[in-house]
Amino acid sequence: MADLGAPEAAGARSDQAERLAVAFARLLRRAGLDVALGNVISYGRALAAVGLGGAGPVYWAGRATLVHRPEDAPAYDRCFAAFWLGDPPDPPPPTAVEVALALDDDQGGERDAAPGPDESSVQPALAVRYSPVEVLRHKDFAAYSPAELAESRRLMADLRLVGALRRSRRMRRSHREHGRPDVRRTVRMAVRAGGEVVRRARVEPSLRPRRVVLLCDVSGSMEPYARALLRFLHAAVVGRGRVEAFALGTRLTRITRELSWHDPDAALAGAARAVPDWSGGTRLGQGLRSFNDRWGVRGLARGAVVVILSDGWDRGDPEELATEMARLRRVAHRVVWVNPLKATPGYAPVARGMAAALPYVDSFVEGHSLASLESLAEVISG
Amino acid sequence: MEEVREALATHEYLADEGLATAVFLALSLRRPLLLEGEAGVGKTEVAKVLARWTGGELLRLQCYEGIDAAQAVYEWDYSRQLLHLRAVEARAAAGGGEVGSDVEDELYSERFLVRRPLLQALAPPRAAPGPGGHVVPPVLLIDEVDRADDEFEAFLLEILSDYAVTVPELGTFRAEVPPVAVLTSNRTRDVHDALKRRCLYHWVEHPDFDREVAIVRLRAPEVGERLARQVAGAVQRLRELQLYKPPGVAETIDWAQALATLGRAELDEDTIDVTLGTVLKYREDAERVRTAGVADLARAATARGG
User: Fold this and answer.
1) Which of A7, A43, B89, B126 ranks highest by number of CB atoms within 10 Å?
2) Measured between alpha carbons, how far is residue A79 from residues A54, A256, A273 in Å?
């Protein structure tokens, strides 16, 4: 690599290294990297250790201290070129994200200004028998008004998604007479009892909830449901269980990190920014394949409850989808397919993708309303 | 850094600039080094080579689900404790006395302590002074940390921050010289951020063609230059095929060794066909290569190998 410009190369005095480290970290943060203060200090020390003489060591010192995910490497490279090599910074990424941000304006004033007529006059007969919440619970997401969507958020926050239990390798004290002997505690009790083994302690495997992996289809055909389902994903991720969330479109995006913000608006905005192909096409097979390759088969889906939220409309090759479903099925504990269209009267899974995937699905459930999501939570923990 | 690279190379590890810098920083800043990457790119090997180079003892902790302090840090030798207790009792009975309370102190002394890798790394039972008279820190390899669970990770973070561990009955062990810690992860899940922040990080990539040839020549000296180039060329081609499990360096070396053992000097179609099992571990992958054409692979091999 080329030598660095004159002022930086002049000397590797540590205070200079520190100041440069802080300035560079600021640039990285602006580019979206998560840089903790401790890492900036390490970077300063690393710079002092490798010297500021060559671009190579300075580059790799930053990679080792400031970058903790291979995905962040391209952004780091751009910042490095701009800061250390004086390349003009790239134009900001295209702002297609702004469109997706419309996702969050559910509290828009338009509906608030004209309250009443639509909600109260649509089904007066039902209003007598059900509370508004009850109506909302069974209403199809696609028919939600923005105000209802906001209300549903509150209800979804009560949903708890906990995977089915499995035996852990971790042991806990057993109070029953069977299980493996716990020598540690037995000896300890023997010492207390003056050296006599009075009682034998035992341990047994503890129970842990399985990991839950949610794969949400964000293609165009799912648009009426995507907003509500994303809310559901958010509620699930911030809840207590071990939940991983992915968006499935023409490509796969992991959104667990974005959705783990407690503030739902910030979380959904973050997720929307992270997903490059919002409301685009679907390549379910390809998406599943990259999930299997990069995450699932390597460990994330092993023994987990995998939930796919999709209408099964797929422009890809159904054969590929079937292959990948089979592969997923081999490692997952259970595969659940949630199809919002299933509740439609007369629905039959004839969409090519759906038909191809169905043989590998353990539970095929609806997911068009709050009530159906509640029963989904039961299926997952069952 | 060049020094690190050369030192690693003399111990049969060819590092690229990024890895050499990361190792150099881990040694000079005394920070743990977290290596992530596909299986078989040589992450674990780094620690082994470091141990050979520095002369420090290699302490390996293989992580698995449910691993806990008893397997990672220390455990008491219960059967010996019980025997000792019995002996004390018998003596007391013969002498007509009581079993004193000091027995407990005796039972929980270093005599009955079983040191697991983490405790060994922090408090080596015998501090072996190196050639310069100073103590050579051991190399602590925490392998596949992504397999352990969150609780263990949090525990690990604590140890790697202070290089100290407390055994309630004995007090705190603090490392005089912190060990060189190398953590590896296959990224089956994300290691917790706090742990990542504590560590230096390096993502280990598949080597490029020239480096892979050099690695094969180094690790499998019985393989000729030409065959090594052909094997590396074929492997590079395989990595482009979008396989379920693209071959790592380990597979490249295996393949080259297998060919040498079979006495093949040329990677032709027939040879590929019978030895494909040493590089591809999925039936689907082998099928995909066969439908894409073994001839194509042979061409890629000879194109690079000449």
Assistant:
1) A43
2) 17, 25, 20
**Is the pLDDT score of A264 beyond 60?**
yes
Look at B18 and A184 and tell me if their CB atoms are within 8 Å: no
Q: Are residues A360 and A294 in the same domain?
A: yes
Q: CB distance A65–B24 less than 8 Å?
A: no
B27: containing domain: 2-66+116-204
Q: Please give, rounded to a whole number of angstroms, the shortest distance from the CA of A157 to a CA of chain B.
A: 25
| pLDDT tens-place string over residues A207-224 | 888 889 999 998 888 888
Question: Are the Cβ atoms of B85 and A60 closer than 8 angstroms?
Answer: no
Q: Mark whether B196 and B213 lie in a shared domain.
A: no
Over pLDDT 90: what percentage of chain A?
A: 16
Which helix (H) or strand (E) segment holds residue A159: the answer is none
State whether A216 and A201 are in the same domain: no
Same domain, A101 and A231: yes
Examine the fold and report which residue of A27, A62, A84 is the final residue of a domain before the chain moves on.
A84
The pTM (predicted TM-score) of the whole model is 0.74
Mutation target vs A (from B188, B241, B291; most A CBs, 10 A cutoff): B188
Question: Which pairing describes strands A165-174 and A202-209: parallel, antiparallel, or unpaired?
Answer: antiparallel
- Residues B50 and B194 placed together within one structural domain of the fold: yes
CA distance B269 to B274: 9
CB spacing of A57 vs B21 below 8 angstroms: yes
Shortest distance between the Cα of B77 and any Cα of chain A, in A, equals 9
Q: Are residues A259 and A137 in the same domain?
A: yes
Cβ distance B222 to B262 under 8 Å? no
Instruction: Please judge whether B107 and A50 are an interchain contact, meaning their C-beta atoms are less than 8 angstroms apart.
Output: no
* Token duo for residue B136: 């050579």
Q: What is the mean pLDDT of residues A260-266?
A: 82
Count of CA atoms in the C-beta half-sphere (13 A) of A309: 32
- Whether A195 and A55 map to the same domain: the answer is no
Statement: residue B209 has pLDDT above 90: yes
Angle CA(B66)–CA(B177)–CA(B49) in degrees, nearest 5? 70
Residues B154 and B291 in one domain: no
Residue A132 binned pLDDT confidence (cut-offs 50, 70, 90): low
The per-residue pLDDT for range B188-198, each reduced to its tens digit, is: 777 888 899 99
Among the partner-chain residues A38, A69, A187, the one whose CB lies closest to the CB of B78 is A187
Q: In what order do the strands lie in the sheet with A243-248?
A: A252-254, A243-248, A212-217, A305-309, A334-339, A363-366
- Across the interface, do B78 and A184 touch by the CB < 8 Å criterion? yes
Do A246 and A152 share a structural domain? yes
Structural domain boundaries enclosing A22: 6-84
Minimal CA separation from B42 to chain A, in Å: 17
Taking only the tens place, the pLDDT of each residue in A329-372 is: 988 999 999 998 888 887 887 788 888 899 999 999 888 888 88
Domain boundary among A29, A63, A84: A84
